[in-house]
Amino acid sequence: MSLRSRLSRRARITLLGVTAGSFAAAIIVVPALADSDSSEQATAAARQADYGPEPEADSPLVTQTGGLSTMATATLSPDTMINRARVWLTANNGGPVPYSMERNWKDGYRQDCSGFVSMALGLGKPGLNTVGLADSRNGVTKRLSGTSQLKKGDLLIDYSTTDGDFRHVVIFEKWANTAHSSYWAYEQRGTYGTTHRKLTYGIGSDNYDPFRPVKLGGGSGGGEQVPSPGVSWPVLRNGSKGADVRSAQQLLTAHGYTVSADGVFGPNTRAAVIKFQKSRSLAADGIIGPNTWSKLTKVVRSGSSGQAVKAAQTQLNVYGYGLVVDGAFGTRTKAAVVAFQKNHKLQVDGVVGPQTWRSLLGTR
Predict the structure, then answer these.
(1) CA angle 206, 110, 209 (to 5 degrees)
(2) What element of type H or E holds 317?
(3) What's the CA gap between 316 and 86, in Å, rounded?
(4) pLDDT tens for each residue of 196-215
(5) pTM attached to this predicted model
Protein backbone atom coordinates (compact mmCIF):
# COMPACT_ATOMS: atom_id res chain seq x y z
CA MET A 1 0.00 0.00 0.00
CA SER A 2 1.44 3.40 -0.95
CA LEU A 3 1.63 6.25 1.52
CA ARG A 4 -0.72 8.23 -0.73
CA SER A 5 -3.40 5.55 -0.54
CA ARG A 6 -3.03 5.35 3.24
CA LEU A 7 -4.45 8.82 3.77
CA SER A 8 -7.87 7.92 2.41
CA ARG A 9 -8.08 4.92 4.72
CA ARG A 10 -7.43 6.75 7.97
CA ALA A 11 -10.94 6.80 9.40
CA ARG A 12 -10.08 6.99 13.08
CA ILE A 13 -8.65 10.49 13.49
CA THR A 14 -10.76 12.84 15.56
CA LEU A 15 -10.37 16.61 15.58
CA LEU A 16 -10.91 17.71 19.17
CA GLY A 17 -10.80 21.46 18.74
CA VAL A 18 -8.69 24.54 18.64
CA THR A 19 -7.50 26.15 21.85
CA ALA A 20 -7.63 29.84 22.59
CA GLY A 21 -4.98 32.02 20.98
CA SER A 22 -5.09 30.19 17.62
CA PHE A 23 -3.02 27.23 18.76
CA ALA A 24 -3.00 24.12 16.56
CA ALA A 25 -5.90 21.69 16.84
CA ALA A 26 -5.32 18.55 18.89
CA ILE A 27 -5.58 15.32 16.94
CA ILE A 28 -6.05 11.92 18.50
CA VAL A 29 -5.84 8.49 16.90
CA VAL A 30 -8.60 6.17 18.02
CA PRO A 31 -7.52 2.51 18.19
CA ALA A 32 -9.67 -0.42 17.19
CA LEU A 33 -10.60 -1.90 20.56
CA ALA A 34 -11.47 -5.56 20.27
CA ASP A 35 -11.82 -5.83 24.04
CA SER A 36 -14.13 -2.82 24.43
CA ASP A 37 -17.64 -3.71 23.37
CA SER A 38 -19.56 -0.66 24.54
CA SER A 39 -19.75 2.64 22.67
CA GLU A 40 -19.05 4.40 25.97
CA GLN A 41 -15.70 2.63 26.25
CA ALA A 42 -14.85 3.45 22.66
CA THR A 43 -15.71 7.10 23.24
CA ALA A 44 -13.50 7.18 26.32
CA ALA A 45 -10.68 5.68 24.30
CA ALA A 46 -11.15 8.37 21.67
CA ARG A 47 -10.76 11.06 24.30
CA GLN A 48 -7.76 9.51 26.00
CA ALA A 49 -5.62 7.82 23.34
CA ASP A 50 -2.41 9.65 22.48
CA TYR A 51 -0.06 8.15 19.94
CA GLY A 52 1.79 11.07 18.46
CA PRO A 53 3.26 12.98 16.86
CA GLU A 54 6.32 10.99 17.87
CA PRO A 55 9.90 12.29 17.75
CA GLU A 56 11.37 12.57 14.25
CA ALA A 57 14.42 10.64 13.08
CA ASP A 58 16.83 13.51 13.74
CA SER A 59 15.63 14.03 17.31
CA PRO A 60 18.05 13.32 20.18
CA LEU A 61 15.23 11.15 21.56
CA VAL A 62 15.67 8.73 18.64
CA THR A 63 18.56 6.34 17.93
CA GLN A 64 20.41 7.83 14.99
CA THR A 65 21.35 5.93 11.84
CA GLY A 66 24.99 6.19 12.83
CA GLY A 67 24.14 4.47 16.09
CA LEU A 68 22.55 1.41 14.55
CA SER A 69 25.75 -0.52 15.17
CA THR A 70 24.83 -0.46 18.85
CA MET A 71 21.79 -2.62 18.17
CA ALA A 72 21.65 -6.21 19.30
CA THR A 73 23.19 -8.52 16.71
CA ALA A 74 22.26 -11.90 18.17
CA THR A 75 19.15 -13.71 17.00
CA LEU A 76 16.29 -13.10 19.42
CA SER A 77 13.64 -15.72 20.10
CA PRO A 78 9.96 -14.67 20.00
CA ASP A 79 9.52 -15.78 23.61
CA THR A 80 12.47 -13.69 24.78
CA MET A 81 11.08 -10.67 22.96
CA ILE A 82 7.68 -11.17 24.63
CA ASN A 83 9.42 -11.56 28.00
CA ARG A 84 11.12 -8.22 27.46
CA ALA A 85 7.81 -6.57 26.59
CA ARG A 86 6.10 -8.12 29.63
CA VAL A 87 8.67 -6.57 31.98
CA TRP A 88 7.23 -3.07 31.41
CA LEU A 89 3.77 -4.22 32.62
CA THR A 90 5.00 -4.17 36.23
CA ALA A 91 8.23 -2.12 36.09
CA ASN A 92 6.69 0.99 37.66
CA ASN A 93 6.40 -0.19 41.28
CA GLY A 94 4.19 -3.08 40.21
CA GLY A 95 2.35 -1.04 37.58
CA PRO A 96 2.93 -0.26 33.90
CA VAL A 97 5.60 2.10 32.59
CA PRO A 98 3.81 5.42 31.91
CA TYR A 99 3.55 6.68 28.34
CA SER A 100 5.72 9.59 27.23
CA MET A 101 7.21 10.71 23.93
CA GLU A 102 9.71 12.96 25.69
CA ARG A 103 11.06 10.81 28.53
CA ASN A 104 13.22 7.72 28.81
CA TRP A 105 12.49 4.97 31.30
CA LYS A 106 15.10 3.80 33.83
CA ASP A 107 16.42 1.28 31.31
CA GLY A 108 17.22 4.09 28.86
CA TYR A 109 14.41 3.53 26.36
CA ARG A 110 11.89 6.17 25.29
CA GLN A 111 8.49 5.63 26.91
CA ASP A 112 6.36 5.74 23.74
CA CYS A 113 5.22 2.91 21.46
CA SER A 114 8.35 2.70 19.30
CA GLY A 115 10.67 3.11 22.28
CA PHE A 116 8.84 0.20 23.92
CA VAL A 117 9.26 -2.00 20.83
CA SER A 118 12.93 -0.98 20.55
CA MET A 119 13.40 -2.14 24.15
CA ALA A 120 11.70 -5.48 23.44
CA LEU A 121 13.97 -5.99 20.43
CA GLY A 122 17.12 -4.98 22.30
CA LEU A 123 17.85 -2.12 19.89
CA GLY A 124 20.10 0.84 20.60
CA LYS A 125 18.82 3.28 23.22
CA PRO A 126 16.67 5.38 23.34
CA GLY A 127 15.08 3.55 20.39
CA LEU A 128 13.96 4.10 16.81
CA ASN A 129 10.67 5.74 15.90
CA THR A 130 7.99 3.84 13.98
CA VAL A 131 9.28 5.00 10.59
CA GLY A 132 12.72 3.75 11.55
CA LEU A 133 11.30 0.39 12.64
CA ALA A 134 9.52 -0.02 9.30
CA ASP A 135 12.36 1.28 7.10
CA SER A 136 14.07 -1.73 5.47
CA ARG A 137 17.29 0.27 5.11
CA ASN A 138 17.77 0.05 8.88
CA GLY A 139 17.79 -3.73 8.71
CA VAL A 140 15.45 -4.13 11.69
CA THR A 141 12.28 -5.50 10.07
CA LYS A 142 10.92 -6.88 6.82
CA ARG A 143 7.37 -6.34 5.64
CA LEU A 144 5.06 -9.34 5.46
CA SER A 145 2.63 -9.87 2.59
CA GLY A 146 -0.37 -10.10 4.90
CA THR A 147 -1.63 -10.58 8.45
CA SER A 148 -2.14 -14.30 7.79
CA GLN A 149 1.65 -14.64 8.16
CA LEU A 150 1.76 -13.10 11.65
CA LYS A 151 3.66 -15.02 14.32
CA LYS A 152 4.65 -14.31 17.91
CA GLY A 153 6.96 -11.29 18.07
CA ASP A 154 5.89 -9.73 14.79
CA LEU A 155 4.86 -6.07 14.62
CA LEU A 156 1.82 -4.17 13.35
CA ILE A 157 3.04 -0.72 12.32
CA ASP A 158 1.23 2.42 11.17
CA TYR A 159 4.21 4.36 9.85
CA SER A 160 2.45 6.80 7.51
CA THR A 161 3.81 10.35 7.58
CA THR A 162 0.92 11.85 5.59
CA ASP A 163 -1.39 12.50 8.52
CA GLY A 164 0.49 14.84 10.81
CA ASP A 165 3.00 12.22 11.97
CA PHE A 166 0.52 10.31 14.14
CA ARG A 167 1.96 6.80 14.11
CA HIS A 168 1.85 3.64 16.22
CA VAL A 169 3.31 0.13 16.59
CA VAL A 170 2.28 -2.92 18.62
CA ILE A 171 3.78 -6.37 19.27
CA PHE A 172 1.75 -9.36 18.08
CA GLU A 173 1.60 -12.24 20.58
CA LYS A 174 -1.06 -14.71 19.37
CA TRP A 175 -4.42 -14.91 17.67
CA ALA A 176 -7.40 -14.43 19.98
CA ASN A 177 -9.71 -16.69 17.97
CA THR A 178 -9.72 -19.25 15.17
CA ALA A 179 -11.26 -16.72 12.79
CA HIS A 180 -8.15 -14.52 13.15
CA SER A 181 -10.37 -11.47 13.57
CA SER A 182 -8.46 -10.22 16.62
CA TYR A 183 -5.23 -10.95 18.44
CA TRP A 184 -3.44 -10.44 21.74
CA ALA A 185 -0.74 -7.79 21.68
CA TYR A 186 1.64 -5.77 23.85
CA GLU A 187 1.39 -2.04 23.40
CA GLN A 188 2.64 1.23 24.88
CA ARG A 189 -0.24 3.70 24.65
CA GLY A 190 -1.29 7.08 25.91
CA THR A 191 -2.97 7.38 29.32
CA TYR A 192 -2.56 3.67 30.09
CA GLY A 193 1.15 3.04 29.49
CA THR A 194 2.16 -0.59 28.87
CA THR A 195 -0.83 -2.83 28.19
CA HIS A 196 -1.61 -6.39 27.09
CA ARG A 197 -4.97 -6.61 25.32
CA LYS A 198 -6.90 -7.81 22.28
CA LEU A 199 -6.59 -5.64 19.16
CA THR A 200 -7.69 -5.54 15.53
CA TYR A 201 -5.03 -3.23 14.08
CA GLY A 202 -4.23 -4.40 10.55
CA ILE A 203 -7.38 -6.51 10.26
CA GLY A 204 -9.47 -4.90 7.54
CA SER A 205 -9.17 -1.34 6.32
CA ASP A 206 -6.74 0.73 8.34
CA ASN A 207 -3.15 1.94 8.11
CA TYR A 208 -1.38 -0.89 9.93
CA ASP A 209 0.92 -3.26 8.06
CA PRO A 210 2.55 -6.46 9.37
CA PHE A 211 6.34 -6.62 9.82
CA ARG A 212 8.76 -9.25 11.11
CA PRO A 213 11.97 -8.39 13.01
CA VAL A 214 14.78 -9.74 10.83
CA LYS A 215 16.71 -11.22 13.76
CA LEU A 216 13.70 -12.96 15.27
CA GLY A 217 14.48 -16.68 15.37
CA GLY A 218 12.74 -19.75 16.73
CA GLY A 219 12.95 -21.53 20.03
CA SER A 220 11.79 -20.90 23.55
CA GLY A 221 12.88 -17.89 25.53
CA GLY A 222 11.91 -19.06 29.01
CA GLY A 223 15.48 -19.25 30.19
CA GLU A 224 17.07 -16.79 27.78
CA GLN A 225 18.41 -13.35 28.53
CA VAL A 226 15.86 -10.70 29.47
CA PRO A 227 16.54 -7.17 30.69
CA SER A 228 18.30 -7.40 34.02
CA PRO A 229 16.41 -5.75 36.86
CA GLY A 230 18.06 -2.99 38.82
CA VAL A 231 19.37 -3.48 42.33
CA SER A 232 16.67 -1.50 44.12
CA TRP A 233 13.69 -3.13 45.78
CA PRO A 234 10.27 -2.07 44.46
CA VAL A 235 8.20 0.22 46.68
CA LEU A 236 4.61 -0.96 47.10
CA ARG A 237 1.82 0.97 48.76
CA ASN A 238 -1.94 1.31 48.81
CA GLY A 239 -3.13 1.27 45.18
CA SER A 240 -0.17 -0.68 43.76
CA LYS A 241 -1.01 -3.62 41.49
CA GLY A 242 0.75 -6.47 39.75
CA ALA A 243 3.01 -9.47 40.27
CA ASP A 244 5.13 -7.76 42.94
CA VAL A 245 2.04 -7.13 45.05
CA ARG A 246 0.92 -10.73 44.60
CA SER A 247 4.33 -11.97 45.75
CA ALA A 248 4.20 -9.66 48.77
CA GLN A 249 0.77 -11.01 49.66
CA GLN A 250 2.03 -14.59 49.36
CA LEU A 251 4.99 -13.76 51.59
CA LEU A 252 2.69 -12.12 54.15
CA THR A 253 0.62 -15.30 54.17
CA ALA A 254 3.84 -17.29 54.69
CA HIS A 255 4.37 -15.23 57.85
CA GLY A 256 0.89 -16.06 59.13
CA TYR A 257 -1.17 -13.11 57.89
CA THR A 258 -4.43 -13.84 56.08
CA VAL A 259 -4.27 -11.93 52.79
CA SER A 260 -5.79 -12.78 49.42
CA ALA A 261 -3.10 -13.01 46.72
CA ASP A 262 -5.04 -10.97 44.17
CA GLY A 263 -2.24 -8.60 43.14
CA VAL A 264 -4.10 -5.53 44.43
CA PHE A 265 -2.66 -3.56 47.35
CA GLY A 266 -5.84 -2.63 49.21
CA PRO A 267 -6.85 -1.95 52.84
CA ASN A 268 -6.49 -5.59 53.96
CA THR A 269 -2.99 -5.85 52.53
CA ARG A 270 -2.00 -2.54 54.09
CA ALA A 271 -3.31 -3.64 57.49
CA ALA A 272 -1.31 -6.88 57.25
CA VAL A 273 1.83 -4.96 56.28
CA ILE A 274 1.45 -2.66 59.30
CA LYS A 275 1.06 -5.64 61.63
CA PHE A 276 4.10 -7.32 60.10
CA GLN A 277 6.18 -4.14 60.39
CA LYS A 278 5.26 -3.72 64.05
CA SER A 279 6.22 -7.34 64.73
CA ARG A 280 9.67 -6.70 63.24
CA SER A 281 10.22 -3.28 64.88
CA LEU A 282 10.03 -1.53 61.53
CA ALA A 283 8.44 1.83 60.76
CA ALA A 284 4.76 0.90 60.61
CA ASP A 285 3.79 3.00 57.59
CA GLY A 286 2.02 0.29 55.57
CA ILE A 287 4.51 0.71 52.71
CA ILE A 288 6.66 -2.18 51.53
CA GLY A 289 10.10 -0.71 50.92
CA PRO A 290 13.67 -2.10 51.18
CA ASN A 291 13.64 -2.66 54.95
CA THR A 292 10.30 -4.44 54.89
CA TRP A 293 11.25 -6.58 51.89
CA SER A 294 14.45 -7.74 53.58
CA LYS A 295 12.41 -9.04 56.53
CA LEU A 296 9.50 -10.32 54.44
CA THR A 297 11.39 -12.58 52.03
CA LYS A 298 12.30 -16.13 53.02
CA VAL A 299 15.04 -18.38 51.71
CA VAL A 300 13.55 -21.21 49.65
CA ARG A 301 15.29 -24.13 47.95
CA SER A 302 14.68 -27.64 46.63
CA GLY A 303 12.23 -29.38 48.93
CA SER A 304 10.72 -26.14 50.27
CA SER A 305 6.98 -25.69 50.05
CA GLY A 306 4.32 -23.14 50.86
CA GLN A 307 3.45 -19.54 50.16
CA ALA A 308 7.06 -18.27 50.00
CA VAL A 309 7.72 -20.73 47.18
CA LYS A 310 4.58 -19.48 45.44
CA ALA A 311 5.96 -15.93 45.73
CA ALA A 312 9.22 -17.03 44.10
CA GLN A 313 7.36 -18.89 41.33
CA THR A 314 5.18 -15.82 40.73
CA GLN A 315 8.28 -13.69 40.23
CA LEU A 316 10.01 -16.24 38.00
CA ASN A 317 6.93 -16.27 35.78
CA VAL A 318 7.30 -12.50 35.28
CA TYR A 319 10.44 -13.47 33.36
CA GLY A 320 8.58 -16.05 31.31
CA TYR A 321 9.52 -19.35 32.95
CA GLY A 322 5.95 -20.66 32.84
CA LEU A 323 5.94 -22.40 36.21
CA VAL A 324 2.84 -23.78 37.87
CA VAL A 325 2.42 -21.67 41.02
CA ASP A 326 1.82 -24.64 43.31
CA GLY A 327 4.14 -23.81 46.21
CA ALA A 328 6.30 -26.91 45.62
CA PHE A 329 10.00 -26.24 44.97
CA GLY A 330 10.72 -29.13 42.61
CA THR A 331 13.07 -29.74 39.69
CA ARG A 332 11.37 -27.30 37.31
CA THR A 333 11.42 -24.49 39.83
CA LYS A 334 15.09 -25.14 40.61
CA ALA A 335 15.94 -25.18 36.89
CA ALA A 336 14.18 -21.83 36.47
CA VAL A 337 16.05 -20.36 39.44
CA VAL A 338 19.39 -21.58 38.07
CA ALA A 339 18.63 -20.11 34.64
CA PHE A 340 17.58 -16.80 36.19
CA GLN A 341 20.73 -16.64 38.30
CA LYS A 342 22.92 -17.31 35.27
CA ASN A 343 21.17 -14.65 33.22
CA HIS A 344 21.50 -12.06 35.98
CA LYS A 345 25.08 -12.83 37.00
CA LEU A 346 24.17 -14.12 40.46
CA GLN A 347 25.65 -17.01 42.40
CA VAL A 348 24.27 -20.08 40.63
CA ASP A 349 23.13 -22.36 43.44
CA GLY A 350 19.42 -22.84 42.70
CA VAL A 351 18.54 -21.26 46.06
CA VAL A 352 16.32 -18.18 46.27
CA GLY A 353 18.20 -16.21 48.91
CA PRO A 354 18.45 -12.45 49.60
CA GLN A 355 20.32 -11.49 46.40
CA THR A 356 18.13 -13.60 44.14
CA TRP A 357 15.00 -12.22 45.79
CA ARG A 358 16.31 -8.70 45.28
CA SER A 359 16.96 -9.35 41.60
CA LEU A 360 13.60 -11.06 41.10
CA LEU A 361 11.78 -8.16 42.72
CA GLY A 362 14.11 -5.33 41.73
CA THR A 363 13.06 -2.51 39.44
CA ARG A 364 12.68 -3.91 35.94
Answers:
(1) 20
(2) helix 307-318
(3) 12
(4) 999 999 998 888 999 999 87
(5) 0.50
